[in-house]
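hey so u asked for the seq, here:
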Amino acid sequence: MAALPLAGLDGQRFDVAVIGAGVNGASAAQHLQAAGYRTLLVDKGDFGAGSSSRSSRILGNGLRYLAPGRSLWDFVRHPSRFRTACRMATYALGARTQMVEETGERVRAVNFCYPIYSDSQYAPWQIRAAFALLGVLNKGGTSLGYKMLGREEALALPLVRWIRTPEKLRSVALHHQYQFDWPERVVLDTAFDAERMGAVVRNHTAVTGLERLPSKAWRIGLEDSADRGGGIGRATVEAAMVINAAGIWIDRVNGLAKPGAKRRITGTKGVHIAVRLPPECQDYCVVSLNRDNEQIYCVPWRGGLHYIGPTESLYDGDPDDIRPTEPEIEWLLDEFRHLVPGAGIGRRDVLYAWAGVRPLTHDPALPKGNRARRIHDQADDGMEGVLSITAGPIMSHRVAGRDLAQAVAAHMKPSAAPQPLSFAARSLPVEPGSPALLNHEPSVTVAQLRAAAATEQPHDLVDLLFRRVGLGWGETMAREGADTAARAVADILGWDEARIGREVADYRDYLARMHLLDAGPG
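ran it, structure tokens below
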């Protein structure tokens, strides 16, 4: 539904306030409301607009967690790391099975090809052992689709035939991975299911204050961070507990409650680029290690495209201004040319790019952060009643939401009866005869765009075209449809001619600035 004026929340009390409406915050709100807690979910930006929308989009099978580092002896010397790796792999496998079986509309299967060379870090027997362990941990879940291909059979596959030094290739591990075709929509599905059950969910609502009261509740200051037609709104609410799921902004949010609070986040920046490869490559992905010993993918993408990534660099810049740079694009191209020289990809082939920062767990022993998801009870930092979640990947968000609800239950009882949640994919209504917004994207109609504008709290064209209907991720990023889209929803969102012009200009500027897409007239 459309968001009510913020002033209407002033003075209200909640059992739990969730700050951050990315995939983990939305899942926490959904599970908490289902458990009977009166829940508030807020985000200073749009639902799922941060790291959740900027990931590699892989619903992983847990294989990456089983990589021991530079030597198998790492797991022998540090058995706790091996236990953590198995736990995280189990989470990944469970999430994979649940998404495929219960929300299959939001994922697609991809053939992942992992080449193994005579000088690779991992030998074929190690890969076989890892998949054997995954098979045990999978416990009857969705098939891994794993088989080891010999050299000749592998080199007959699309994309694989162009890999480097084929004379050194020993085998290829082929397995099935799944891709979140539209992660932002997963966040929206989850947040709006929480709303269906009675949660208050609001985007573009910034937290401006966080204060512990003598009653042991938390006073939370809120402010509209977008013009909703009535000027800037403000409200103050109370909550018995707070979940800080603000991702890369977690430390900033904790700082509102306690200046100098413990550091929880180490951010690593991931950049991806979109290119077009020959049609026969469409169902195939190559994944390997780059020359820094970190993973690199070339993954099928929408409209016959592929995306290449990610980078892995420490990020301590402005979390509100994360975008790809030309040196990062050149680095990715160089690494991809090293991996798949036969593809002949250069800068001219890059259609657009995107960048995000992973909110990994800060760990002094791991300079690039710890990938193990953790729930921090902030009582150890003088903030009793506040929980923070770090390093929660999109693939295991449902487990994270469940675990956060259980962590809250350890502190307090719900105020209402539980109710069933739903993992079903939310669909916009189909209106026969409504024209397509873009001729080459017939699946999205003007009627659906209008329905999203009326019921799903968009503020601008970026909210609409990227996160409500998904057209922003096409080859042209829907720039040619910006004017049509703005005019189609102007009456619903109260936009006059001047606002329509600003929206179109701002959308094209966003594509040029955040995605390095030529934002000239469509």
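The chain is about 30% helix and 25% strand. The radius of gyration is 23 Å.
lmk if thats what u needed
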